[in-house]
Batch of 4 targets.
Target 1
Amino acid sequence: MRARTHTLLRSPVVAVAVLMIGLLGLVSLSSVEAEEKEKKNKVAASGSETVVMTPVGAPVVLLSENIKTSSWTDLIIGVTLECSIITELTNVGNSTEEAEGQVRVWIEIDGNVVPVAENDMTDPGKVVFCNRLHRMTITDLDDEDAMFNTYLRTRSANAFNWMAMNVEKEPKIHTVAVLAELTTSATDGAAAQAIVGNRTMIIEPVKSAKQEAVSEIDV
C-alpha cells in the first residue's frame, strides 16, 4: 500500500496565511524604511557660544546646517534662542536719556532669504525675537547736579517657525543658515547691549497641499 504525502502549501488556508505573513513583512519593512528615511531627512543643530554685538549691526550667522533633498519638498524650519537686552541710563539734572537694543532673526537657504509669508515685502523674513526701548526724562528739577542711574537686564527664550515652500531638488544638498542682526543705540548718557545665548534649529521636510502658499491674514 503506497503511503500518502501532503504538501501544506496546497491547502488554500495555509497558502492565504503564508501570503498574509509575506504582505505583513513587506508592510513592516516599508514602515521601517519610511521611518529611517524620515529620520535621515530631519536635521537639527544647536549652539551655546554667546554672541555680543556692537552697534554696527552686521549680520551674524548663529547656526548653519546642510540638508539633503531627493525631490521637490517643503521645509518647516524652527528656531529657538535665548536673547538678552541690557540697558543703562544716567541722567544728570534736567535731561532725557535713551537706550535701545534689538535682536532680529531670519533664515537663508543657499543664501536666499525665506519669507515669513508670500506677501512679506518689508524686510522679508526678519522676525524680532527681543527688543527694548528704555527712556527716562527728568524735568523741573532744581538741582542741576542731581544724578539718576537706572540699569535693566532681561533674558528670555523665544521661538519662531518659518515655512520654506517648494525647495528645489537640485542641488541635492542645501545649506540652511540662521542669521541675526543685533543692533543697539544710545544717547551720550546711556548704554545698551544685545546678546544671543543658547540656540537651536530644527529642519523638518513636509509635503503640503499642491499649490499651497503661506499667506498673511489681516486681523
Note: The CA atoms of residues 15 and 71 lie 39 Å apart.
Target 2
Amino acid sequence: MKLTVLGSGTLKSPADRNPPGYLLQAGDSLILLDVGPGIIHQLRTLSSDILAVNLILITHFHPDHCSDLIALLLARFLARHDSNHALHLVGPLGFREWFHGQAQWQGKWLHGAMPQVTEWQGRELYVDGWRVLAERTLHTENSLAYRIEREGKRVFFSGDTDYQQSLIPLAMESDLALVECSLPEHLKQVGHLTPKETGIFARQAKVKHLLVTHIYPENDTPDLKKRVADFFDGRITIAEDLMEIEL
C-alpha cells in the first residue's frame, strides 16, 4: 500500500502546499481522501490514472476539501463516458443533498452516468476490498475522520478536527495516521489542532507513523517536527506535496 500527498496545506498556503488531498493505492485500486482545489493538477503531475480511482472519501463540505470533486467527475467522463458509474463517493450527513445541489447545474454528461453516493450512517463500509470506518469530528456539524483498512494495514485520516478523545479508538495503532496540525499554540483556533495537540493525540492513539499535515503558513516553520515531537516520541514525518509513503 502507498500513500501520496497531493495537498498538505490550506487556502492560505504558498504554491508548494496545495489544499488538502491524498491518494491511497493498493495494487491497481486507488482511493482519494478529499479533493481540494488543485488536486486534479497534482494527479496529472503524477501521471496518475484518474479512471483507476474507485472510491473518494470526503471529510466535510468546506471548499478547500471538496471543490475539485465535480471537475474530477467531468475529467473522468471526458476520458471515458461511462466511467463514473463505477465510482463510489462517501461523505458525511448531508452529502447526498450537497452533491445533488452541485450536480443539478451539470448536463447529461453527469446525469447519464452518476456515481454511487453514500452518506456515512455509522456502519463500516466495504468497497472493492477497502474497509472504511468513520467518526464525527469537532470541526463542523457533520465533518468526519476516516479509518481505511486493506491487506492488514490501517490508515487514519483526521480531516479537520479539534482534539477529541472519541477519535482515539478510530486511530488506535494505525500504521499511518494523517493528522492535521494547523496552527501554533499561540494562534489556537477552535476546530483545529496545534502541534501539542497533534502530538498528544498520536501518543494516546499509539500510532506507528504520524504524518503531520494541513499546515497553515503560521505553523510552517523548520521546528514544526520538534514541536510535535515534544509530545510524541514515535515516527514523525512532516507532509510535503507529492511525497510518497510506503506502508
Note: Residues 2-246 form a domain with the Metallo-beta-lactamase; Chain A fold (CATH 3.60.15.10).
Target 3
Amino acid sequence: MIALGLAVIALLVGVLGLVSAKRAQYDDARDVRRATGRVGIVAGILLAIIGGGFLFFSMFFQNSVGEAKVVVNTIDRSIVDQIDQPTSGFKSPFSDFVEFDLFSQQLQFAGHGHEAPSYTGGSVNGKEITVNVGGVNGGSTRADIDLIATYSLGTEKIKDIYSQFRSQERFTEQMVQKQLLSIARQVPANYTAVEFRGQKRGEAEEAIRSALNERLGEYGVEFTSVTIQDVRYPPNVEKALTAIEEANQNAQKAEADKRTAQVNAEKALIVAQGKSAAQIAAAQGEAEANKLIAASLTPEVIQIRKLDALVEASKGGNYIIDNGDGSLLLDGRKR
C-alpha cells in the first residue's frame, strides 16, 4: 500500500513537471521541468509495479491440510471469518490471518534445565515436573517425573480461542500447559511410591489424560497420549524402594518355585497313578483270562487232552500211566 501511494505521488509529480515544462518561458527551465516530469512518471510506474506485486502476494493465501486461519480486521482485530479447509484464494487488503496448527502437538517436560519453557505454536519444551507421591511408610514423598503429552486441536473452537487468547502460542502457555502441570501434580498423590513407578504407572497416565480431556474439551482440545517416562525419588526413598522391590522379587520367586514344585508333584502323581492303573488293568486282564481258561476245562476237554498227550508220548517210545486220580505219569521204560 505504501509503494502504491508513493507511485501515485511520483506520477503526479511527473505529470505536473511535464505540464509546467510547456509553460516555461526559458529553455533551461523547460528542460529541467521536462526531465523532472519524465523521472517522476518512470518512478511512479516502477513503484506501481512493485506495489502491485506486493499487494498481489499479500492478498493471495493458501490454507494447507492441518491448518486453520482466523480472518481478522487489520484495524480493530475483530473476527471476519474462519478458514479450516484446504483451499487458496485472495483476501481483502484490510484483513489479516491468525494461524493455528491442527496437527498433533507435544508437551515435553524432562531434565533439570533451569531455563523457562520454550513455546513453538502449540508445542512446549520444559523441565521436569516435581510432584508428591504416597510415601513408602505413609505420608508423602517428593518425586521428579519426565512426562510427554500429545494432543490435537479441533476447528470448532478456533474463534473462541482467538477471542480469549489472540494466538495459539498464548493459549498453549496460559491454558494447556497450566492445566497439564496442575493435573500432573494432583494425580500422583493417589498412589504409593512403589505403585506410581511400577504396576500402576499406566493407570496414572490414563487418569491424567482423562482429566485433561475433561477440563480442556470445551476448547476442542483432545489429548491422545500421556507418557510418564521416568520417576526419580530422593536417595533415601530410592534405597527403601530398592529393598521393597527386592523383597517383592524374592517373594515372587518363592511363589514361582512353590508353583513349580506343585506342578512337578502333580505330574509325578499322575504318572504313578497311570502306572498303577496299568498294572491293575493288566492283573485284572490276566485274572479274567485264567478265569475263562478254567471255565473252559470241562471233563470232556480234559479227557481229550489226555488222549492227545498219550498219542504224542507213544510216538517217542514213552508210556503214559493213569494214576487213577485223574493225573498222568510219564514212564520212559519199555514194556
Note: Residues 261 and 292 are 46 Å apart (CA to CA).
Target 4
Amino acid sequence: MHLNQTRINDADGSGTMFDRIAGRYDLLNRIISLGVDQRWRRRAVDLLLQGPSRRFMDLATGTSDLAIQVARRRPAIEVDGVDPSAGMLEIGRGKVAALGLSDRVRLHLGDAQALEFDDDTFDGVIMGFGIRNVPDRALALAEMRRVTRPGGRVVILELAEPRSGAMAPLARFHIHTVVPRIGSLVAGGEEYAYLQASIADFPPPDRFVTLMEEAGLHEVRAESLMFGVATIFVGMA
C-alpha cells in the first residue's frame, strides 16, 4: 500500500521511502488490510481480464503480487511490472523466480508519469495501492491510457477514507489510529504516518472517476469494497 500532494518529497511516498520498508511491505499489507488485500487484488484482476488478454502492465508493482496474479491466470499472459523502488523490485524478482515466472513477468524501474513504452503496447494496465503516491495523478492516468490499446482496460485499486455510511467512523478510526500504530511497530512511524495521511488525502470516488475521464478513459466506473475502505476503478481506453 503505497499529505497533500504538495508535501510529498523524497522521504514521503517515493521509491526511496519504499526501499526502506521493502522487506516488511507484504506483512504490513496483510496486517493493515486485516488480511483482505489479496482478495481485493483478485477482484481487480478479474475485472482486468474481462477484455483482451495477452500482455499487461502492473504499474506500481511493488513486490509483484498483482503481476504474479495476472500471469498465473492464463499461461500465455505476459506482464511488465513497473515501480520506482529498486528494493521492492528486488523482492519481487525473487518471488517471480521462485514461481518459475521469470520468462513471463518482467520487472522494470520506472516512473508512472513517464512510461518508457510505446503507444498501444498493452491489452490493459492494472495499478494497486500506488496512484496515491504519484505527484501528478492526471499525467499518470494519461500515460496509462496512452500505452493501453483501444478497447483495453485500466484498472486501479486504491484505499480511501470512507466519508459516509454506518461503518465510516470505524473505518476512519482504523486509518487514523490503527494504521500508523501498526506501521510504527513494524516499519517505523514516519513511513506509515505517511500512509495514513495519504489515504485521508485521496479524493472521493466520484472525483477520481472524473479525473480518469479527463485523462481520456471512457465508461469509467467505481466499485466500492468493504464499506468504502477500498475502491476499484475501471476505465476503457
Note: Residues 26 and 63 are 8 Å apart (CA to CA).
